[in-house]
Every structure is written in structure tokens, then in C-alpha cells.
């Protein structure tokens, strides 16, 4: 008998028929002798509907009230799932975040979990009940409802698993695991049976959106064994098969029996490049350029400063494509006159492609192999950024699929066992 | 400056445009210097949608989970209304019942309010905020969400007004007050400017559905000055006009300047008559007949036992029309063999018409005037039931409109000032 946390996304909870399927799957785990806590998302579309109503009323909504409104989506889900479980003959009880309670700070719409009280949940589990807890939300010190931001239900599930010291946290979603790259781009992409927590962080933040990045951080911090698996399989499939399906995110190196050098190729098209040309190369330039950008709440990703030539340098960085216009505006109005740059150039037609792998640490030549592969395909590299376990390049948008396919092949990802 | 509670029904909250109108109206009251607490219902259709989802999952839902689900409708409403008020430049904060808290017993789906803590609300009012509180719900001793049953938002509003010792509780709805009878049946029906609490109780329970009956009981118990008025008027109409519009429910006899003998004619078509024929007239007969009916959770209204003839009597009562089949089944299977009755007869084609008036107490001849009026129209009276302030008759369904019109005229309701 193990204590296991299940998390189901909005698509899995999208209709009463699908909720019934979730209940059937949970019931199967209960009958196999496990204690189960379920964290469901709001029914798909519901959070958008609720926030849409708020938007009709004001363009500048009070975040506390937004959380009051948005949190109801998950509350409906837990009640419905508890009913579906009871209809399956499984004793179940639902709790909103504030009832557990899941305590958070007061950063409405993007709160962070500070603690979870497990007393009530544990008592229900010991009484033989399945406990269904709202994802995405908690309560702050003022007694107000908070939400964790989009995708926060993943984080809730991992946090609940950490608080309960659950054996495993199963994140059921509409994909069957984490792949070496997007199968829509590379048909030979292979599901990874195991991925390290660090690799998962890079894969998630680089655009292979399977899990919310904060949930992975949480899993890492509290060493929660987390598995991503499909909710679209037969809910009554044999438990032995289900327990080894999907992709396990692990913290123990030796769980990766055969460590590949590169685990996957991540990519993101939501990129734009900004270049500040002819900047007088003085101390504080980077700060003077990026300070106003940060103040405007624009997230910056890759940053490159070229070597100085005759006292002038070029400074480039990438932002989300939707923020390019805003970034250019800030640079032209606030930065250019201040630092005396020659020109500001924006390019929305770029993308980022990254090779990720914990094995990189102990292997040399990964970067050169990556650059050679791109050279052989005639792809010009515009920016390069590296970390311990990944290498990212910014290239022209139109080469993205070509680059991903070539790198996936070059690193032998279609054949390597994970 | 007065503390006033506003309550808005589901139709008034039915769209963001209507919510904006509610905010405009509340803002007008605030600008006139009043402290306002608002209790809105769920957006129209929302509670039905939510309970419909639950029904798709199980025919026998756990009432605790139903309350978890249904209570979200009002939570969305308070958040949206707070946003709309803020957009109008009025500081506002929303609370769910559990945050106030509104404490109730644990009778899920039909809970009763036991106490309301006014600390938090009063602090916000004193800080210049409008406080928006969910109707329809509270929290029990276990920390679970409870709901008060259909129409419970009226009760919430009156209870909040009582707890805060508010000057008045304004119930905004889609009618502009309480009428002498239904204007759809009698075009000459007149709005009552004032009605006594006792009359309102009789009018509400007899089918003139303007206010939930429990809210009227609450208003009576705590002597909350309650006014029913329209939310369909111009939200910016002069405050002086609005303050004397609608129908005031009063507890002070002298507020009714000119007391009419009869205040209104109420009626209900949702009636069915059951007759147990040839019952041996022994002690305990009424109990033996009505005990099993009560056990089957069937509400009984008018009860008549005829005089005994040769040791046998007939026993009649009315039930809601939808429960006739169930009542007949109980009588045939459990009661008939037990008491040795000759026959059980059901008649779904009856209705109830009542004359209601606190003036009746001090006037004689009301009953005979009522019977004479019906006799003149050739309407046969099947059952009669009287109380201090009303006389009800059960008659054939087809005569209902005729009876209501004739009585409305006979008691001079189209001309009397209330």
C-alpha cells in the first residue's frame, strides 16, 4: 500500500463523461490497495470563461478579486470528481485549498505555496477515503483566496505530494510523457522513460511544455518522484502497465540505467531578437539597457554582448515575440538617448533550439557537434547560450524544423534508450 | 448616513452589462453617504448549470459535495461585482460566506444560519469600502461549505442586515413590489406600498413568490425593515424616489396608514387533493394516515376531516401536485390495509385561492363575503382552511382565474390604498 497523488488536467476533466473516466481510474488504484489524493484542474475552458467575464468589466482588475473568481473553476471540479468517485463506490471527500489549508503568500494571481497542513487529509485517508483537493489555489494570511498562476495545478499536486511524503506524484495529461523532441516535428521522436529533474527543468523552460516549470522546481526541492503519463489510455488498463508508463522525473542518477549524453532537443518559436548597435562600451551598459526593460515587466532570455571594437559594442537579447514592440519602444524612448546608442534593431523571425542532457557534464565535444551539424545544414547561428546541461542557439525562424530534425538525428535520439 | 443592505437576484446579475448597472446603482447610494453591503445571487442559470453537471454524474449526490459545487456561482458573482464597483471608482471587497464567516448548521443544501460575525465587514465599511458577500451559503462547524437552499440569497441578505443592525434591507428583484394579486391574472392588481410581515408570510407561502419564505421569517424574527423593489429601473434614478419605491414589509402597525381589510389574493395551482373515504372513526386516525405521508417526506397543506357518519368518516388533504402519485402509493400500500379505509381518491385538478389581510382580525364577515362571491360565480368550494389573517379555499382548477378576479373586485383591491 502506497500513498500516491494523482493530478488531472483540464482536458481530462473536460466533461462529465471524462470525469467519470478519471473516477474509474482512481477507483482502480484504490482497489489495488493504495491511498489516493487527487488534484484536478478546472474543466477545460472554464478559467478562460471566468477571466473573460472579469475582463468585460475592467481592463485593470484587482488581482484579489480575480482569484476569488478564477478559483471557483477548480472548486466545481473537486465536487464533481468526489461525486463521480462516490458513484463508483469509492468513499471520497473534496476540499478547496483554504480548507486543507494550503497556505500561500499574498501575491494574488501568482502566489507561492508556503505550507500545507496534512492533518485533515491524512485523517480522511486513514478513514479510507479518497481526498480530492483543488489545484491552483490556496489561502493567504488575511484569509483571502489566492491562485498560483496558470498551470498552478501541477505545482499544487507536487506540493501536496511533498507535504504528505507521497511515494509518487502522477501527473495525468494529454500526452503520454516527455519526448526527445516534439513528435510533430520529428516523427522519430521517442518517449523518455526517465529524465533527470535538471533536464526536465531545461526542457520545460525551453518550450517542451509538459509540466509547469514551478512544479518541476518544487519536485526538485522536495525530491518528489513525479511521473508524467497519459489520461487518454483505458482507465482500466492493468495497474502494472500504468505504473511504468509515461516519463519518470527522477533525482537519483542511478535510476537512469543508461545515461544518454543528450536527452532531448527543445525548441521555441516564441522568440524575438533585439540588438542595440553602436553602444559606447562603458561600465554599466548592460544595466542601463536591461534595467528599463525589466521595469517594463519584459522577460529577457538569451543575452549576448559582442567584443568591443574601437570603444563601441553591440548588445543583443531575446524576448517573447509578443513583447518585441514594447521592448523596442522602451529602448527607443528611454535607453537610446541615455546611452547614446547608434541604432536599435528588432527581429521577430528568430527561434531558439536547445540540446539538453545531464550527460553533457561528463562529455566534451557536444557543442562542436551541435555547431557542425547546423553548419552542414547551412544554418547560420545568431546567438549562443550555454549552461551545465544545455546548449541553446538562436537561429532564423525558417530553419527551426530543419535544425531540430538534424540535431535529433546527430545525437542519435531515435535509437538511444533513455 | 445609514447602513443599508442591498440584495440583487440572478436576473439582475445575469450579464456583465447588468452587473455594471448594479454597480452604478450601488455607487449612487455610496455617493449619497450610505454604507452599503451587497448580497448578490449567482448569475441567472448558473446554479442550474452546476447542479445539472452533478446530476449527470449521479442520481443520488452527496449533499456536501453539491454545496461545494453550487456555492461557486455566488462566489463568481461577488468577485465580478467587486470589480465592477472598483471600475466605478468605489472601493469594494468581496467575501464568500466562509470568510465572513456566516455560520450555519450542517444540513447541506438546506442549511440554517446560526450566526454571522460582523467584525470583518464592519471594519471594511468603516474603512469606506462596499462589502460584497455571497448569498445562499455559509460554513458549518466542520469547516465545510453549506448552502441555504433555493432562494437562500434573500435569507442571507436579511440575516446580514440583522447581524449588522442595518437600517433597511433592500431586495432588488425583477418585479417592482408585492401586488394585491398576480397582474397577469387581474390586470387591475395594484402594488402595495406597505405590507405587514404576517401578511407577507401568508402571501409568500401561498404562491405569490416574491421573496423566499425563510427570509420573511428571518425579517420577522429580527425585525429587519425589508423592502422589495425593482432592479429594472434606471440605476441613476433619484435616490429619494428609489427609497420610497417598491413594497415595504413592516413590523410596526402604524406604518400602515390606512389598513385595508384584505391586502391581497394569493393563489397556487400546484395543488392536488387526496381523500381517504370510509375510515372507521377511531382515535389516532389522522396520525395513522399522515404519519406514513410525513415519513415519505411529502408536505401536506390543507387538512380536513369530515364529521363522522355512522362511525365512518372521510379524511382529505392537499399535497403538491408532483407528489400526488407518491402520496396515493403510500396510502394504498401502507395506510389502507392498516386502518381499513374503503377507498383512496386523488384529484390533481384543484387549486387554492386565499384572501390575506391583517385587517381581518378586527373585521367580521370576511369569510361569508368570500363564500358569497364564489357562490355568485357558481364556483363550488371543496375545502376551507382559515387562520388569523387568511382564508383559503380549495376549488376546481379551471375556476382559479375567475375566482381570483372576482375576489380581487369584491374586496375592492383595485381602488384601496395600501
What does this structure look like?
The structure is a homodimer of 418-residue chains. By secondary structure, chain A is of the alpha/beta class. The first copy, chain A, folds into two domains: 217 residues, 3-Layer(aba) Sandwich (Carbamate kinase), CATH 3.40.1160.10; 147 residues, VC0802-like. Chain A has 13 helices and 18 strands. In chain A, a hairpin with a 6-residue loop joins strand 14 and strand 15. In chain A, helix 1 crosses helix 4 and helix 6 runs parallel beside helix 8. The longest helix of chain A has 16 residues. Chains A and B meet through helix 1, helix 2, helix 3 and helix 4 of A and helix 1, helix 2, helix 3 and helix 4 of B.
DSSP strand tally of chain A:
18
The profile of the biggest β sheet of chain A is: 8 strands, mixed
CATH class of the largest domain in chain A: Alpha Beta
| Rg of Cα set of chain A | 23 Å
SS strand fraction of chain A: 25-35%
Biggest sheet: strand arrangement of chain A: 3-6-2-1-9-11-12-10
Question: In DSSP terms, counting alpha (H) and pi (I) runs of 4 or more, how many helices of chain A?
Answer: 13
Q: Regarding quaternary structure, how should these chains be classified?
A: homodimer
CATH architecture of the largest domain in chain A, please? 3-Layer(aba) Sandwich
CATH superfamily of the largest domain in chain A: Acetylglutamate kinase-like
Q: Find the biggest chain interface.
A: A-B, 36 and 36 residues
What is the averaged pLDDT score of chain A? 90
Short note summarizing the structure:
The structure is a homodimer of 418-residue chains. Chain A is an alpha/beta fold. In chain A, a hairpin with a 6-residue loop joins strand 14 (300-305) and strand 15.
Amino acid at each position: 500500500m502506497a500513498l500516491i497523488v494523482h493530478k488531472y488536467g483540464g482536458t481530462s476533466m473536460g466533461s462529465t463523461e471524462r470525469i467519470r473516466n478519471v473516477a474509474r481510474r482512481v477507483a482502480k488504484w484504490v482497489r489495488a490497495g493504495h491511498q489516493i489524493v487527487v488534484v484536478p484542474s478546472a474543466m477545460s475552458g472554464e478559467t478562460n470563461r471566468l477571466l473573460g467575464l472579469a475582463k468585460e468589466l475592467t481592463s485593470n482588475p484587482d488581482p484579489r478579486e480575480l482569484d476569488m473568481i478564477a478559483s471557483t473553476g477548480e472548486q466545481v471540479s473537486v465536487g464533481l470528481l468526489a461525486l463521480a468517485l462516490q458513484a463508483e463506490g469509492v468513499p471520497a471527500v473534496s476540499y478547496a485549498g483554504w480548507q486543507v489549508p494550503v497556505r500561500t503568500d499574498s501575491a494574488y494571481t501568482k502566489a507561492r505555496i508556503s505550507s500545507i497542513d496534512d492533518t485533515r487529509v491524512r485523517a480522511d485517508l486513514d478513514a479510507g477515503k479518497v481526498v480530492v483537493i483543488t489545484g491552483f489555489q490556496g489561502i493567504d494570511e488575511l484569509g483571502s483566496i489566492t491562485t498560483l498562476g496558470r498551470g498552478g495545478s501541477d505545482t499544487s499536486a507536487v506540493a501536496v505530494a511533498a507535504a504528505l511524503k507521497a511515494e509518487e506524484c502522477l501527473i495525468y495529461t494529454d500526452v503520454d510523457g516527455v519526448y526527445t523532441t516534439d513528435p510533430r516535428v520529428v516523427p522519430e521522436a521517442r518517449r523518455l522513460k526517465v529524465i533527470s529533474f535538471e533536464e526536465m527543468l531545461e526542457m520545460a523552460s525551453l518550450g517542451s511544455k509538459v509540466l509547469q516549470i514551478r512544479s518541476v522546481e518544487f519536485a526538485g526541492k522536495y525530491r518528489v518522484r513525479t511521473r508524467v503519463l497519459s489520461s487518454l489510455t483505458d482507465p482500466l488498463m492493468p495497474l502494472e502497465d500504468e505504473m511504468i508508463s509515461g516519463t519518470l522525473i527522477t533525482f537519483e542518477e542511478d535510476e537512469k540505467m543508461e545515461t544518454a549524453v543528450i536527452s532531448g532537443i527543445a525548441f521555441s518559436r516564441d522568440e524575438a531578437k533585439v540588438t542595440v548597435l553602436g553602444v559606447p562600451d562603458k561600465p554599466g551598459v548592460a544595466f542601463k539597457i536591461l534595467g528599463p526593460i525589466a521595469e517594463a515587466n519584459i522577460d529577457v532570455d538569451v543575452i549576448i554582448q559582442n567584443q568591443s571594437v574601437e570603444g563601441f559594442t553591440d548588445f543583443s537579447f531575446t524576448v517573447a515575440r509578443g513583447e518585441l514592440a514594447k521592448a523596442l519602444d522602451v529602448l527607443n524612448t528611454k535607453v537610446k538617448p541615455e546611452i547614446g546608442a547608434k541604432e536599435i534593431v528588432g527581429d521577430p523571425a528568430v527561434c531558439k533550439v536547445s540540446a539538453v542532457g545531464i550527460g553533457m557534464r561528463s562529455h566534451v565535444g557536444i557543442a562542436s557537434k551541435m555547431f557542425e551539424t547546423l553548419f552542414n545544414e547551412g544554418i547560420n547561428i545568431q546567438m549562443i547560450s550555454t549552461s551545465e546541461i544545455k546548449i541553446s542557439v538562436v537561429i532564423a525562424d525558417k530553419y527551426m524544423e530543419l535544425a531540430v530534425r538534424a540535431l535529433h538525428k546527430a545525437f542519435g535520439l531515435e535509437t538511444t534508450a533513455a
